[in-house]
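Design review, sub-item: ligand-bound model
Attendees: FS, YL, KQ
YL presented the inputs for the 2-acetamido-2-deoxy-beta-D-glucopyranose complex:
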Amino acid sequence: MDRAALLGLSRLCALWAALLALFPCGAQGNWMWLGIASFGVPEKLGCANLPLNSRQKELCKRKPYLLPSIGEGARLGIQECRSQFRHERWNCLVTATAQQGTSPLFGYELSSGTKETAFIYAVMAAGLVHSVTRSCSAGNMTECSCDTTLQNGGSASEGWHWGGCSDDVQYGMWFSRKFLDFPIRNTTGKESKVLLAMNLHNNEAGRQAVAKLMSVDCRCHGVSGSCAVKTCWKTMSSFEKIGHLLKDKYENSVQISDKIKRKMRRREKDQRKIPIRKDDLLYLNKSPNYCVEDKKLGIPGTQGRECNRTSEGADGCNLLCCGRGYNTHVVRHVERCECKFIWCCYVRCRRCESMTDVHTCK
Ligand SMILES: *[C@@H]1O[C@H](CO)[C@@H](O)[C@H](O)[C@H]1NC(C)=O
Ligand SMILES: *[C@@H]1O[C@H](CO)[C@@H](O)[C@H](O)[C@H]1NC(C)=O
Ligand SMILES: *[C@@H]1O[C@H](CO)[C@@H](O)[C@H](O)[C@H]1NC(C)=O
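KQ shared the predicted structure:
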């Protein structure tokens, strides 16, 4: 396996381990992720050797065939987080030390109780739902498959019926809950208890996003495409769409009070009457501005990041560089151009050079 692939896999392991490190799980607490640098293919190592807590090991042993989906779920989540935040000051970057396996993935953001924490938990939990459900629909699992509750349903008068394979998102959600959600046991300190409750809520918000974006696909039958009869099935949205929805939730996330009574409450006193919905993302603490490097927190800052001189958005040099200004470099691009089809059968192109300005934050 090449180095990049290995790095990727060790990151996946690091991720779940890092997630777990947040939960007080008795003796297997915060240090569990430390050994992850050497992890290879998780399914080859087996459940016993992965940085899982005892509950998860038990689950893993009973369902070892789910290990590839767990890895795939983590990959989906991380990739979508990076993609959604690629233009922002916080760009969901894995810290350099996490890549070397010596610190948890995401580092500070995983336990800071900020909006970023909220997004990470939601997108990771959603990723797990998505990958497990896909695997069920692909017929890779004995205990789950397509959603069979829809069989024989539909509406003859409207000319359609359920058929094909509907994604059984309920099983994916069940597994994601089982794997990621830990009961809030008596933990030390108020802060950690609220943080746990917050993380659990955001896990569920991620799952709800997958469920909410289920859609219906249909195929027409009938004489020459007349669509007299349709077969329809339920399908999950692409994970990109789910990521978009979660990004939206992130931007409208709700700050909660650090004092937990019977349940979590909004921080803003005059808004407490507005109920917290289960698909809202919740956060506890204000985010740092992510402008300047903070080695202690593992925040890289935006120095050296590429910015867009003409954009008014988050990727614009003004916002991204936090008003520090930017440097401009000229970068030479070489590409194939003026391609012509030659009979028969190849394409001949010229090599074209172009110069573009690249701006990076000071
Ligand atoms: C199903 O299993 C096959 C063979 O192990 C694998 O190649 C494929 O990626 C799996 N599909 C999903 C969606 O997990
Ligand atoms: C912790 O939980 C256990 C079992 O639920 C309970 O018996 C015990 O009193 C709790 N301890 C504290 C300090 O809340
Ligand atoms: C920069 O921003 C402008 C305005 O939003 C956009 O049209 C352009 O495509 C962006 N350029 C790059 C290189 O992303």
